[in-house]
Amino acid sequence: MKNSVVKIALIISASLGFISNNSYAQNAKFLEIIYKKDISLKVDTAKNNAHQINLSEFNAPLSDAAKDIRYSLKISNHNSVFKVVESLNNDSKNNILKKAAINIGGTNGDFYINKQDSTAILNKTLLDANFRVLLKPKKWKIHKENKLIGKYLCYKATTIDTVNNSKGVHKFRVNAWFTTQLASYFGPSAYYGLPGLILEVDNGKMKLTATEVTFVKPFQIRKPKSGKLITEDEDSSNQIKAEKNIKEHFDDVFK
């Protein structure tokens, strides 16, 4: 009888400990999540022209450059900010490759999210000007599939990205994995709005995967105030202008 009581007490103690730790994880308001990046986008070599062939040689170096890139998602109460944290080294060639790798997949700039008022802003520099882009929320579909990322049980969700560039309007399927064991709503880059924290996202061009989750001391995140406030459509127009400038540059180089 005594042994039975001891066993029950141990089970209750263990259960309470689990609940306490899980509750802490559920209610923790100050987090930092580090993500690694893998690039799946490859330069299209279907067109047989000089600059496409030369650009295709960057596929492998771009993938290698991405391996050294890390992003940070910091969460403070109802706010979050996502940005690159890996500093570029002094080698000019590697700097160029890393900057290109950072840009691929829509991960360039500082992404600010406010859960209370559902505000999402991308603070970025383009065409030598600073902008604050108002991001549209994603429409997610949650699936029954699940898997572990680290020690966290994650569920699958999908959405569609619509990209408007110089080649037209394109749609990409996005796969995300989120956990309900951590702060809900937040995620990397422009991916947020799920009933849990997104620990992995793949948009067909790149994949971000969480490698570290740390509970940190309280800190503040301030809403970005500098830069011209524009819509996503206006940002797409700016991107098209930038792409045309880059294409003209390569056309001149490889004439």
UniProtKB/TrEMBL annotation:
Listed Pfam families: Porph_ging
Signal sequence, start to end: 1-25
Keywords, sorted A to Z: Signal
Protein name per the record: GLPGLI family protein
InterPro entries: GLPGLI
Keyword Signal among record annotations: yes
